[in-house]
Amino acid sequence: MTKMTLGSYPHMLGFEQLERLLERTAKTGNEGYPPFNIEQTSDFSYRITLAVAGFAEQDLSITVEDRQLVIRGRQSDTPDTRVFLHRGIAARQFQRSFVLADGVDVGEAVMENGLLHVDLTRAKPQTVVQTINIKKG
What we know:
Largest sheet: 4 strands, antiparallel
Order of helices and strands: HEEEEEEE
CATH class: Mainly Beta
Distance between the termini: 45 Å
Helix content: under 10%
CATH architecture: Sandwich
Structural class: mainly beta
Strand order of the largest sheet: 1-2-7-6
């Protein structure tokens, strides 16, 4: 069976970048940790919330790399003298990636009660009508 691509549809011109974006999204490798929510807070804004219990602000980094929001967590390696009888709270490093559409910008990030909130805004689309003149050949 052959793989259908957007380039195989003659009426879909210039969508190669979208196809690469979809392939990159499928390869993000997010394993389910930490859990997260995505909510729409208005017609043009969103909020991503990650459950990062046990992480301090300095243990987290948020970057935008090639239209991809990347949130990383790594707890500092401090010598721990505690003896756990049960350790059910995950303390491993993580990386969460979210592909951003053109026009989506990352706003502020706020840490609150073990939750990391990252706000996103999308520019309001503008309707553009262009008239093309026809020349005699």
